[in-house]
Amino acid sequence: MKKYILPILLVSAILFSCTKEVQIDIPGYVKTIVVDGSISTGQPPIVLLSSSQDIFSPTNLQAYIDGFISGAVVTVSNGTNTVTLTEFCSDNLPAGTEAYASSIFGIPVDQLANFHLCAYTSLDPSIWGEVGKTYTLTVTHEGKTYNSVTTIGQPTPLTSLVWTPAPGEDYAKMKGVLSDPPGQYDAYKWELKYLKDPIYTKDFNPFFNDQFFDGLTFDFDVSNPMGYVDSTISNNNSFHLGDTVVIKLSKLGKSEYSFFEKKYNQIYSGGNPFATPTNIPSNIDGGAYGVWVGYSPWYDTIICQ
Predict the structure, then answer these.
(1) pTM for the whole thing?
(2) Would you state the torsion angle of the CA atoms of residues 3, 5, 8, 13, taken in this order, to the nearest 10 degrees?
(3) Closest Cα to residue 247, out of 305, 293, 298?
(4) Domain 33-152 has CATH 1.10.1060
(5) I need a surface site. Which of 6, 43, 87, 134 has the fewest CB within 10 A?
(6) What share of the chain is helix, strand, coil (3-state, %, to 5)?
(7) What's the pLDDT tens digit per position in 86-108?
(8) Do 150 and 167 meet the contact criterion of CB atoms below 8 Å apart?
(9) Domain boundaries, the chain
(10) Span 274-286, pLDDT tens digits
């Protein structure tokens, strides 16, 4: 019995001597402006401004609405024209812009007036998106100025898009073929909608890049994200006979893609304390969070018949 006493004492001493109280200094909350801006080919710039929220702040709908920022001065320049954007709010829209506002905020037209959600945009076509042009965003708010630059590149079309059901069936997966341009960085955003719908629907993470298929041509199954909102869609992401589907494949830049990639990685973690911490990069200069992104979309419509 005596021969075990010494090892037990040594092990006990090691275990108890390794305990240490660790104190972590958590930085205090600093209110920061958040920019959510985009411009697409043939479309006006759209900029939403809000305030960052303390981690312990409320997460209800009213807190979200109260976070929007009004009264800022927002300009966009394409190198030739510089336009000051106009602030439009969902509860006081110009006639005829309801459908467009619905697509911006993701809220049905008949519910827009119930909320006070504001965005900055312009009805001046001289500042609307064009392929090959670079756009500079400037935001001035509470004495501070924030800047960002984005470019609308060349879109990449799908080589083919096919829907072919098996004999006797009225549903099938849709097949697409993409030929990625060789020798350059390409990032994409994938969206779909039924022709009758005003708003595009996207997968949980609609962004991808050509890191593993630069310059290659490959085929893929087209997922059907409308299944998230349409309970009648089943059969493993299939499309049904009679569906008319609009495809929207947009290109975006490298830094812009990095923002969305890290953003969705953070969402994927779901608050898991064991997940790798993710810092979401911003392409906004001046200390703001967020992104200013240029999209060059390519569209196609396929009728399942």
Answers:
(1) 0.85
(2) -130
(3) 298
(4) no
(5) 6
(6) 20, 35, 45
(7) 998 888 888 878 877 887 777 78
(8) no
(9) 33-152, 158-250
(10) 667 778 899 999 9
